[in-house]
Design goal:
This protein is mostly helical and 246 residues long. The protein has eleven helices and no strands. α4 (42-64) packs across α9 and α6 (96-112) crosses α7. The longest helix is centred in the C-terminal third of the chain and has 25 residues, at 162-186.
């Protein structure tokens, strides 16, 4: 309970980041992670953030599950597992700064570059391209993060409707955050002291998600695209700033 009283401001923060993610499809989780890093012990930031985001993505998925492209999500899950297995042994040897630059520039390309006129790599089967894309992005995001915004940018670029983009993203991130929380629990992280804070943040995130999803359904695709590009560009800018040492 003492943690809840000390960090009460994370509760309204979770509400607003839940609204942000539901409305724009990106950015809320990254923003919440950064703010939690200012207040929680370094060893607690990732597992506690994962637990909060697990609940938020579960609530979004419950509201939008009819729009999920389960074939795409299944292929991404396959690629994610393979990518995580491959990235694990080599993660410590990769240059984090270089990966931040690659991810930051990649996000900017996805939201600002003109779309190709024809199909990309038409000689490769669509399913194989999806698995390969999931494998590569999972390896990158395992080290840098920002998996949700990356997959949302990829799906929006492919022409998916805004609600369907959020539905796919919620299913994918529910899987990834579930694996994260399970791994931390398996390796002995004590969630007990944080349970009151987690419960309050989960409730705030649920309300924020409900508000955000209802706003999303009312806004136009053009407004969504403008907001989405702005938020993704900010995330990319943060990554590039970190790479530059700021």
């Amino acid at each position: 309970m003492e943690i809840l009283l000390q960090l009460w401001w994370l509760i309204p923060t979770t509400f607003f980041t839940g609204v942000l993610t539901a409305v724009t499809g990106a950015g809320g989780g990254v923003l919440l992670l950064g703010l939690m890093g200012l207040a929680l012990p370094p060893t607690a930031v990732v597992p506690v953030h994962g637990a909060v985001m697990l609940w938020q993505n579960a609530s979004r998925l419950t509201m939008l599950y009819r729009l999920v492209d389960w074939r795409f999500v299944g292929l991404v899950a396959l690629g994610s597992v393979v990518g995580a297995v491959l990235a694990g042994p080599v993660a410590v040897h990769l240059n984090e700064t270089a990966m931040q630059v690659v991810l930051g520039l990649g996000l900017l390309y996805l939201v600002w570059a003109p779309k190709p006129q024809g199909e990309v790599l038409p000689w490769i089967p669509a399913r194989l391209k999806t698995v390969g894309l999931a494998l590569v992005t999972s390896m990158v995001t395992m080290i840098i993060g920002a998996a949700g915004v990356l997959f949302a940018a990829i799906r929006r670029r492919s022409g998916r409707a805004k609600e369907a983009v959020l539905a796919d993203q919620s299913a994918i991130m529910l899987l990834q955050h579930g694996l994260k929380v399970g791994v931390f629990g398996l390796f002995g992280f004590a969630f007990g002291p944080y349970l009151p804070l987690l419960a309050a943040m989960a409730l705030a995130g649920l309300v924020g998600t409900w508000v955000g999803v209802n706003v999303l359904r009312k806004i136009s695709n053009a407004w969504f695209d403008h907001a989405f590009r702005l938020v993704v560009s900010i995330v990319a800018g943060i990554l590039l700033a970190r790479a530059a040492g700021f």
